[in-house]
Amino acid sequence: MSQARTSREGGGTRHPGSDDTGDALAGSLRIAVTRLARRMRSEKSDDSMTLTQMSALATVASAGPLSPTALAERERVQPPSMTRVIAHLVERGLVLRAPHPSDGRQVVIELSPAGRDLVEDERRRRTAWLAGALETLDEREREALASAVPLLERLARA
Known about the structure:
By secondary structure, the chain is mainly alpha-helical. It has seven helices and two strands. It has helices at residues 3-10, 20-41, 51-63, 68-75, 79-91, 113-134, 139-157; strands spanning 95-99, 107-111. Strands 1-2 form a two-stranded antiparallel sheet. Helix 3 crosses helix 4 (68-75), helix 3 crosses helix 5 (79-91) and helix 4 crosses helix 5 (79-91).
């Protein structure tokens, strides 16, 4: 099978040493993880927020105050795009601009109490949905997923 065809069907570029079984697993896993992530994102409570805005808010919640440049880097978006995201979040009262602790020319973005409440509500909502979905699985299936969590975390760091 050609590399181009394998890439289309398996969902990725072939790497040296990969085989058709590994490519098939990679393709299946990519599709399943993407669908699960999409389904969990659909559980958001605020339809006026884009996924990019919600992601930026969650990043500030977990990382703490960040400069707009650092936030753009973490979110893997261009700084002008992040500037628009931040402006929307400030307008909604979800984040605050504060003076940078060591560089008076810069600001840092930090969560407001309303932003923290929204992030916590989103996490609770998605966790509740996933817990309910897990209840539809039998014990053996839940154990298989539990044993896969460390592997998935390792893959996410690769």
